[in-house]
Amino acid sequence: MSAPLKVDRISCRYENESAVNHASFEMASGDLACLLGPSGCGKTTVLRAIAGFQPLIQGAIYLDGRCISSTSTVVAPEHRNMGMVFQDHALFPHMTVGRNVSAGLFRHSAADARRIVGEMLERVRLGDKINKYPHELSGGQQQRVALARALAPSPGLLLMDEPFSNLDVDLRERLGQEVRELLKDIGTTCVLVTHDQQDAFTFSDKVGVMRDGHIEQWDQPYNLYHEPASVFVANFVGDGVFLDGTIASSSEVKTELGLHSGDLVTDLPVGTQVDLLVRPDDVIHDDNSSQSAKILKRSFRGESYLYTLLLPSGGKVLSLVPSHHDHAIGEDLGIRMEIDHLIVYPKDGPTCPLD
Ligand code: ATP
């Protein structure tokens, strides 16, 4: 049965080096969450701690209300009722797909194991591959076998470490979506680790952005993008730049591009000098606008161009424009600002003004 998970202010270290620092988050049964962050920020160490491979020097971890890790309690990994999927599949090469999936079903009768293997392979759409060997499958298929194997014993929690990172971009997005639908259908609680924002957004209900061993923001993907709680999260999640601005009222910020009205998420007083976060989708291409900026760079993304634009002051903004508006570097592009969420950070102030 799927279970709720609570990670409560855990800290871990390797010899003398701190790897995780007071990391906390909670998940309801059936939630899909992701730990996202730059290399070395402690994502895998948190996952290892949840799995029972990494001791805690502080804090505790609870699965289904039961303490499974603390400084005084350690439930052995094999008694945690967790499934795991890693980047390199780790399938047994000399065993067929069917035997791989049945590997964790040693407590079941042979007839039950056969039924579960058949059901799991159908669920990952590999029912016809039961007698194949791993080397006869594509990378995406191997990863689906690894998933079927991890899910076969009905774990309370599934842990996945960079499961899609060896796959090409198209496949990883498709598989991320497929795996999400499958886990939602079964109702499995799952924590996934990735450094790839698209993986995190495709897959998760909640994302924890990690920095230097702690969770900087635990939130829905939409909020991470539109209401980042710190400069670090704003920079790490999505494209964007900061423009010099001044708080003009409780719902307005003034910049060189005019007065912007919207939801202003701050209690900074009027007149405060701030950095305003401007995302590429806030800068709309409009030939009829009185404002324009010079195209410095452009990056083709299929359905759109991401233009880097130079403002008269020397500042820069990014603009996402449908790719049939094909403008050359050096041209002036008419622009209009449409910012719904005004995200500001005081200049030289603390990095978490929204807390
Ligand atoms: P990546 O995305 O590169 O896998 P990560 O966010 O998963 O990184 P961790 O692997 O958890 O980060 O590492 C956190 C910190 O702990 C890093 O500073 C790393 O160098 C250190 N570390 C990780 N594993 C060990 C180890 N076995 N021995 C010593 N230090 C380690």
What level of helicity do the residues show? 10-25%
CATH class of the largest domain: Alpha Beta
Radius of gyration: 24 Å
Largest sheet: 6 strands, mixed
Shape, principal axes of CA atoms: globular
CATH topology of the largest domain: Rossmann fold
Number of beta strands: 22
The side-by-side strand order for the widest beta sheet comes to 6-7-8-3-9-10
Bin the strand percentage: 35-45%
Q: What is the number of helices?
A: 8
List the ions, cofactors and other small molecules found in this model.
adenosine-5'-triphosphate
Distance between the termini: 36 Å
The chain-level mean pLDDT equals 90
Computed structural class: alpha+beta
Structural domain count: 2
CATH superfamily of the largest domain: P-loop containing nucleotide triphosphate hydrolases
Order of helical and strand elements: EEEHEEEHHHEHEHEEHHEEEEEEEEEEEE
Q: Unreliable stretches, pLDDT < 50, 5 or more residues?
A: 350-355
Q: Would you spell out the secondary-structure blueprint of this structure?
A:
Elements: E1 5-14, E2 17-27, E3 32-36, H1 43-51, E4 58-63, E5 66-69, E6 82-86, H2 97-102, H3 110-123, H4 139-151, E7 157-161, H5 169-186, E8 189-194, H6 197-203, E9 206-211, E10 214-219, H7 221-226, H8 231-236, E11 241-249, E12 252-255, E13 258-261, E14 263-264, E15 273-278, E16 283-285, E17 291-300, E18 304-310, E19 316-322, E20 332-337, E21 341-342, E22 344-346
Helix pairs in contact: 3-4, 5-6
The structure holds adenosine-5'-triphosphate.
Adenosine-5'-triphosphate (ATP) binds at residues 14, 17, 19, 37, 39-45, 195.
